[in-house]
Amino acid sequence: MSDSIGSVGSDRFIDSKLFKVLGGYEGLCAITIAMIFVAFIIIIFIVRIIQYPHLRQQVIGGSSTQSIHTRILKAVVFFLFIAGLVALTIYNIYKMIHDPPKLLPATFEPNTLSPSMLFCPSTETELQFISAYYYDNFDGFDALELFRNNNNVYTLNNGFKIIKGNNGQCHFFDGTLSMKPKDATGGYYNIQFQSNSSSNIVIFIGDTDDKMDWTLLIPEGNVYNEVGIEILNDGGILQYTESRRQVLDGSYTYRSFQTSIIKDTFDIYKVDEQIISIGVIAPKRVIKEVEVPSFKLADLFSSIGGYLSMWVVVGFLFGGSKANPFGFVTRFIFIKQDRAKLLKELEKMNADRNAKINTLEKEVDSATETNNLNDKDILKNLLAKYYVNMEFYEHAVKSLDV
What we know:
The chain crosses the membrane at residues 25-51, 72-94. This protein is of the alpha+beta class. It is 39% helix and 23% strand. The chain has ten helices and 14 strands. A hairpin with a 6-residue loop joins strand 11 (236-246) and strand 12.
């Protein structure tokens, strides 16, 4: 794992916001399959409509058993429903594209990264860097054994350089150049300077990236890159806490620091009056927040699916076609109009029945047998008109086109 979390944003599609919003590879696979399926259905529909005239007639529309009042109201409700579906889809797509990401619940992760630190004198006094060491835990630190061989101590001298800015000449420790073990969590940093006079030292703890300006009076970077600030009198011990925020495409993680003083002097470890020792205790774990899309493709499907479930309202109002042709509107609103239409259709059916009876009387001698056929004929017509879709059956028995 690199000592620097921050990096330049990736140009790869898999790191983009769109890839995250669509649900990754699973979402792209689902979209591809759905598009192929829809295209297949549309092609078959167009081919069959061109191929068979009776299908064109069904698509254009046949006779309705509802009054003109009910049909107009049904058309109005249908178009309002479609308009709502289109508006909902557009709104959800807009949210997918433009909504800011939300955060997953914060989690703890091991702190294997070093912070960057800036040490500035509060007066014109110059600081001379002596040494910097990292210990894997605070208990392993011993100032008196500082220059002896220790298994748990690592030198950090190569990570220091001079920075001149609004705070004068400061010593900067670049956390990305830390020589501590990659898998070491937390730990303790001990930095020593030499000064010819007593001086307060201003310490800034933050992150090293291209957005951070360490030359400012109070260094700052991105809105999520907060810098911890403390002032120590001739050295001391401080500790910091850190929180991290990973951006949506995973290309960058912002680090925010807060500091507090544990001991404002280092007298118990001081071995020379001109030596200023500063200790920094690092946490073993840090809080991490990860950005995720506020609205994904799955949310879009869920939202549209919930909206389509409202189609039961249309069935309630106008009936379910031939499965239930008499809905709320027919029973409680346009009662007289739909009743008149129904009676008209029944009279038409009765006229057709009488015509068939006359034909059957010429061919059948038994009156009982004729009546039985009439009853079956009435039932068949009633079912075909209101309850059973007979178009395909009637076409199939009359033609071999399909």
